[in-house]
Amino acid sequence: MQTLLPFFKWCDGTAVGQAIRDSRFLFPIIESLHLFALTVLLGTVLVLNLRLLGAGMPKQPLPLVARALAPLTFWSLLAMLITGFLLFCSEALKCYDNPPFLVKMVVLFVAIVFHWVVFRPTVNAPAEPGGPRRIATAAGSIFLWFGVAVAGRAIGFY
Amino acid sequence: MSISQLCQWLQDTPWGTGIRESTWVFPIIEGTHAIGIAFSVGILLIMDLRLAGVLLRREPVSQVSNQLMPWSLGGFVIMFITGILLFWSQAMKAYGSIFFRIKLVLLVLAAINALAFELTLRRNIVTWDTAEKPPFRARLAGILGIILWAGVIAAGRTMAYNF
Question: Cβ(B113)–Cβ(B148) under 8 Å?
Fold first, then answer.
């Protein structure tokens, strides 16, 4: 962690970070955008997982639902990363001492890797995967993405 | 009894005080509220985007709706129950917050938007069910839904701040 301290310090000192700290309105506005993007992201993840489990949209083929939702997942994630980085810059040094923040970053990294390495190949496969693989993939995806959200909320409680 | 007295009484009840002063209950209820939003609004947004003619354009609107809305409604139940508990525990803070009032107005508008859709467009859905680009009023209902719920989320989050 110590080796990362200069990075946290640099972020904390950026002009954007300073501007957000100095404004009364910027932080809540960016935070609201961050939350709305999160809602969109979790919505796409939930619908696709419900389809994977056969519990939602069972009349549509899995790859069709996956293809339809993929751009929305991507753009909402990008919006989250951008707004999240801006929020981070405004309180980077606070985050350095904040265990939920560090947990969130680790879970986020795992969630993104899992999403593209395990989840997407499963939902895009032409043949629907077998039961155990479906359940494990959906459980992993829901646990990781909701874990990011819960850890994110915990930053403010710590 | 005025509304402010009612709010004061509400948050002074054992339940209100208990939730507010607990270490874990409040964050757990709030976390559940947020998960409820992901189910309710997150899934509703997919439906609204179908109405707006953006997503799943080749799938019949009624199929998307019938298959997704039960999950969304389940989320709304969770969100309303946890929302009422959160309000219970800090009714005075909510009463004094302009953002809480804005949130209530937006919630009512979102309900009217949904009700108007159910009572009019939904009744003759057979005539436009498979339209890749639904009629103007259906697209409007979808876009209004997205804007109103984004506003509800923003106002809800901003309640935490005093300007």
Answer: yes
